[in-house]
Amino acid sequence: MKSKWRLAAGGVIAAGLLFFYVRVVEPNRLTVTRLELTRGLLAQALDGRRLVHLADLHVDRLGFREQQLVRQVNALNPDWIVITGDLVNRAEGWPVALDLIEQLRALGGIWVVPGNTDNAALPAGTFSEGLAAAGARVLRNESAALEDTGVWLAGVDDPVEGRDRLSQAVSGIPTGAPVILLAHSPDIMPEAVKAGIPLVLAGHTHGGQIGIGWIRRFSDHANRGPYMSGRIQEGKTVLYISRGIGWKERPYRLMAPPEIGRLDFRLIPGAGEKGRFGSLSSAAGGSLILADFETESESRVRWRGRGAVLRRTNNFRTKGEFGAIATFKDRQSPKLILSDFLKFSAGLKDWSRFRLLAIDLYNPYSSQERLFVQIGDAAGRLYKEEVILPPSSPVTLAMRLQDASAHLDLRRIEELSLFRWRPGSEESFYLDAVRLEPRESEPAKVAVTSVKPPAAVQRSEDDNDEELSPPPVPKTRSETPIVPQPESEQPTDWRIGWAPAAMKVFREPERFTGKLGNPLLLSLAGGEAESVQLVLIGGEKGATIAMKTSDLAHELSGAVISRDRIGLSKVEYVRTSAPYYPVEFVGEWPDPLIKADRVEVPAGKVQPVWVTLTAPENAVPGRYRGTLTLTDQSGNRKNVDLRVWIWNFNLPDLPHLKTAFDFYRFRLEKAYREFVPNGSKWAGRMDELQEIYFREMLRYRISPVWGADPSAASFGEELEEYRRMGLTAFGVGRRGGNFGNNWPADSRELAEAVSWYGRAAAALRRLGAIDQAYVYVYDEPKPGDPQAAKVMEAIHRADPGLRNLLVMHEAPHPSKYRRWLKDADILCLRNTSVSTELVEEYKRQGKEVWIYASSPSHPYPTPVIDYPAMAARILPWICWKTGATGLLYWCVNFWEGDPARNPASFARDQNGNGFLFYPGEDGPVPSIRLEAIRDGIEDYEYLVRLQETLEAVKRKGRSNPAFENEAKTLLAIDPDLLESPRSYSKDPELLMKHRQEMAELIEKLQALLAGS
Prior knowledge:
Elements: H1 2-25, E1 31-37, H2 40-45, E2 50-54, H3 64-75, E3 80-84, H4 94-103, E4 110-113, H5 116-121, H6 124-133, E5 136-138, E6 142-145, E7 152-155, H7 166-169, E8 179-182, H8 189-195, E9 199-202, H9 213-216, E10 230-234, E11 237-241, E12 259-265, E13 281-282, E14 288-291, H10 298-301, E15 303-306, E16 308-313, E17 323-328, E18 335-338, H11 340-344, E19 354-363, E20 369-377, E21 382-389, E22 393-400, H12 401-404, E23 413-419, E24 427-438, E25 495-500, E26 515-516, E27 520-526, E28 529-537, E29 543-549, E30 552-554, E31 560-561, E32 566-575, E33 588-595, E34 598-601, E35 606-614, E36 622-632, E37 637-650, E38 658-661, H13 665-674, H14 686-699, H15 715-724, E39 730-731, H16 747-766, E40 773-779, H17 786-798, E41 804-808, E42 826-830, H18 836-844, E43 848-853, H19 870-882, E44 886-889, E45 917-920, E46 923-926, H20 928-955, H21 961-972, E47 978-980, E48 983-984, H22 988-1009
Helix pairs in contact: 16-17, 19-20, 20-21, 20-22, 21-22
């Protein structure tokens, strides 16, 4: 008896568990079923793309199952989502269904066909309009192209009630185009087979809701005919029937769980109608063409897209008969990828034998647009560069592969992609001739021309030509870098070496690529400051080394340059954080320069010392010699020879390149109040401290924006002093771009605010300073911004002589925005947006053009800590190359906490952006980047001096054709040094060579001018 009760109880429990499973567990157990299509035109056209298929949502509420559905679908990152009907059971569920649809994410869009319950619950208009508002499109006996893939989606109304019209749905599709048919019921299958449709997606059956056939036959709601679930193929037509998500009347499932369909299109080599990739082609001169779009299938087979599509066109072509148009959708980061083509094409992975990756591009819009180009190697390392596409203009991207070689293995390249970052809108660009350009022949060695001393100077017997000539261009890299020695052979003594100022020297001896030994070589003009790095390499034990300089003595005349003009600074290091732009490494980077006459050299580490000479004006030209004496704590002494060449010309006190470097007073006050050691001693003395910073900026040849008040009693005296120190330009007032565009929006309030500027202009005229002044009127408005135009016009009404400085992140199209720019006197363009052609066009409109650098946009140069020093020094050269006459930087002291501890003050992934000084207890501590900018501004003076001297020679009729041709070449700047604002050399040797050639030619032209 007990056994029967136990058996009965067990049966009841089992039945209860089974009921719980079929009613609660399995209906909520979402599964993902993967279908892979590897053959035919669909696989070829959609290779690498993904489609998610849903059916029979039957939504009443956003419960656990629906929330899981959204998460799982979005995690698949589909290109498209299709839903084959029965979204709701009744009209009350419609708002909930739309809420669910709005949460789904697909790069290419969501497409829906109606089911029988949809038609019963909702009018057709309500169904279509509601889904359109939720971001989905309804196909009701109609078709649509699937982006630019060449594939078409056809959708029919519900076949269950005979609403389907397949012939109408496919009527507009081009003959031979591959089609995906969406239908609520699989009953459409026989007609689809007759029409030759390759893929049909349907639902309606719920997979029977019971996966056991003989049980399913007992249910009127489960036995749905011959097409039940899964993949079925008849002829060349593949039908896939989804088990759906919900139910209509019976809330149970057994061995037929809810289903998300994942369709991956992947063409297997040899499985398609044509070869997968086609063949590579070569161009004249050894170029290797990766894509020229001459075959119909190339854009579909070689490339795959994520939120982007590529198709062939003859509207833009630079090679052959066709190019391509790439459409990037309005998504987070739409991308076109050339990957498998590189992986599987023999011999194509090795890019090390090529110099450039080149792509011909065309931006059809009237505004500048951004595009990123990225390459990756087999280890997954990536390198990307940003391309600024000029408006309505073709451009050739040229990515220097040498720049990428520090970040990845060029012998194992497996990815090339084009992408947009948060584009904001759907946009299309043209491209053609994606290619690798071969390496050019190595440049010839530099031949340094000697300048002989005047005949009246008598030589001593031990004089020789080498000693009386300019120093050779310093070789910046050692033939054999320093490497660690075995412990038994570790040196017990410290060693010395040197490196140019334009090379960053790191802590590890094995990374030092300067030169061992001495002398230290410098060449500079009168009135110029130039630096070189003394590099101390620690031995087995650390050392404390005292440093002392001697006077510099001219070898022939006996003239002396005082040791007081030689500055010594210890190079300090800051630890960077991982940035978004490619860098050589993350860790300790050299930057702060601390004045010192002794340094600690850690055992086995490198410690650079910054040696700066400021030459007096009108110094006797020629070679000088001096000594830097180094003595350690044990009394060991080493002498370092200083050899200096002074050119026979001076740099002016007032630079020709105008500068505007902003300084934030509130950041100064915050730093010295909160984290600068002993900063409290400056309490109540902020005016004095700011003055110290301003003077240091001028010493580095950069002018503070200032925001001057010409009506202040002290203004005239301050202005005179700043001019004497080299002030090139200055801002007026406390409104404008550097104050957050803080102009009143109300016209009456704006007029009152601007009236102050009229009075300021009158005061500036009395002091003869209005030509140096500007109003930093607006910062980075969108082209056409009405408020910016309104303010600029108001400033000119106050006084037409006041110059409006307009800072633009995007370069406005010169003709389209000509009227909008009519009151802009100085147009300051981001260095990513500038070009020689744009500058010339703006100048024809009477504008002065400056450039500015801000957040890093690789490979464009920006003065951040973890870029090469050349990235800062090359900025004034870009001004010269493009014709810009000014350089702006947004802030020299944006400190958020101690920048020596956290150099990412402005943004956590931008090291050093927004500051060039460190806050020291006694005032400003300069940086290597600031030194590099000063050196670049002085390089600019060499260019100016060469041009002026050449013109003076021509005016006197003493032109020398050889000198003139050499000058034109130098003034154009060697493309190997600076090709464009985005392409420049990181090698200081090229710059030093160019600079020395200019100096030598200036002296030759001066001699010609003097008639000697």
